[in-house]
């Protein structure tokens, strides 16, 4: 009996301590300068109901789009920011479009993108935190890959063609139903790794499977970790992310011998000029560091796997959305006919060879993809930055944002604003190509680049904007344009019924993995 009383006393004391701690935390945070800032802001999603703030955070899991459109229509258009609740996280301050230029003009020591990426991907637990500290492999993409795109066009097209034959497996002339997202990701993974990893690894299905599953795991596990209370993350984080390490180890088993051979060649003074791929560029950059740890094959492989993660999933989502938007449109036949005419004409004018010049001239193909990005953007909000200036930042018109607050832009509202786009709720495949096909008096195109997919602006923000715009968008654009051109020239595609709905989850918009299309060889 005495033991039971003692146990009850301990439990009661523990519960009392937790209550006191919770109340203390509430009092401290509610009195902080940041808390006072949030109380002064205009919020969305907080309906007249009990525990409105709690339910608004819960609603943000799947209702972010509706909240953003509400805030954009009521507040953004008047030049006022609004606050977006976040599940188990600090809220976001969404800035009006008029303040985007002021935001991106701020120096990196006042607003920070890297901190946001680390939080989003939970790099402390999903692995490779050391790579997040020094991601020089991304600089390789920014400088080497973009510059050498003309050398990549033919081999990427070659790998895409082989990928379609392998994934869509069409026999005869009949219709076949395929999983859109799954097959797009498999095809893109193969083609991208021709450039990232070289011919040998890009055709190793086991390597591709593990790089792909690693990326799936990082995004999935990061989402789970970010929904956990902060105090639980050190305990559960390693358990949630356990499978990530197994995929990396399998990739290392396959790739390390190839990496070791290339490293040894460089040590022997043999330049790997025959290897025009990111793996070779990363190895060469590692040599310049004069740090033996950077030449460890396992670490180089981790950089390679990380490149796959940031490149393949976003491209696959974009390509899936493009197919769903294009072939579910009431004007699908008209659009596809126009795309086929363009590809045939441009190829014929360039001798039938797939070159960078051919890809650049496919303005309708470019437009069809860009329009899908506008309509079905992966991010409902974007340009997210953490304010790191201890004094906060001033954005003009009385908008002062204190240190520690995350700010972002309401992409979903901007991309559907009638002031930016005529009939914004309609998918118009040639919206961005019409002006690029207008000729001047000398027969030259008047507006060749301004509407291109890689061009960011205040009204097109999926790739970011300013100095931190996505550096991989040039390669991704070429890959997607080659892919769509091959599809329209080689296949007939249809969707039964209406377009499968995308899933909105925590501010991201992704195609349903159950979405399917029907394909056959072009008749």
From TrEMBL:
Annotated positions binding heme: 470
Cofactor(s) recorded in Swiss-Prot or TrEMBL: heme
Sorted UniProt keywords: Heme, Iron, Metal-binding, Monooxygenase, Oxidoreductase
Xref: CDD domains: CYP503A1-like
Keyword Iron annotated: yes
Keyword Iron: yes
A GO molecular-function descriptor: oxidoreductase activity, acting on paired donors, with incorporation or reduction of molecular oxygen
Gene3D superfamilies named in the record: Cytochrome P450
The family this protein is said to belong to: Belongs to the cytochrome P450 family.
The protein's name: Cytochrome p450-like protein
Organism: Dothistroma septosporum (strain NZE10 / CBS 128990) (Red band needle blight fungus)
Gene that this sequence comes from: cyp7
